[in-house]
Known about the structure:
236 residues
Amino acid sequence: xxxxxxxxxxxxxxxxxxxxxxxxxxxxxxxxxxxxxxxxxxxxxxxxxxxxxxxxxxxxxxxxxxxxxxxxxxxxxxxxxxxxxxxxxxxxxxxxxxxxxxxxxxxxxxxxxxxxxxxxxxxxxxxxxxxxxxxxxxxxxxxxxxxxxxxxxxxxxxxxxxxxxxxxxxxxxxxxxxxxxxxxxxxxxxxxxxxxxxxxxxxxxxxxxxxxxxxxxxxxxxxxxxxxxxxxxxxx
Length: 236
């Protein structure tokens, strides 16, 4: 009897231990499964948040780039406006200067306000500023004529100067025609005068080979009538 009772107790003990370990093992597996599922859910949620953060950062970068472009565009516009304002200011100053020049002289008189001439190789670069006091909407039509005093083949002489052609000016050619050929050239448009109150003209004049100019006389012609003239001495 005692032996049977002992075996019964041993059986109960072993059965209870096995049941405990079985239940504990099942609980561990359940907890591990829940932990794994939760970890996967958290990882997925974290990945989604990273994707959203990347998209937001990309939008932010695009917005900042656009703002930079907008600021650069605004700065360019401001620069252009300032340049236009400066140009307008200079133009206004020039206009005021010309307005002060124009009143000189009697009604309808032509005045030579400036005449400069500089020798450049076998050409002469000139600048002319003429003005006229006249009623509004009346136009003066005429032309300029240039002559030069100097020496040719050791003798004092006077020659007519003709503005350089576009071909000569663009190529820099020194193949200048002889004085007899210069007179055959048609009048250059740059010699024409057509203005109400003021006109500025500049260009290059040609002189024949071997000619050494000493001074140049510029005349303002209306038909065959000389309305104004000015002489410029040339530096050797």
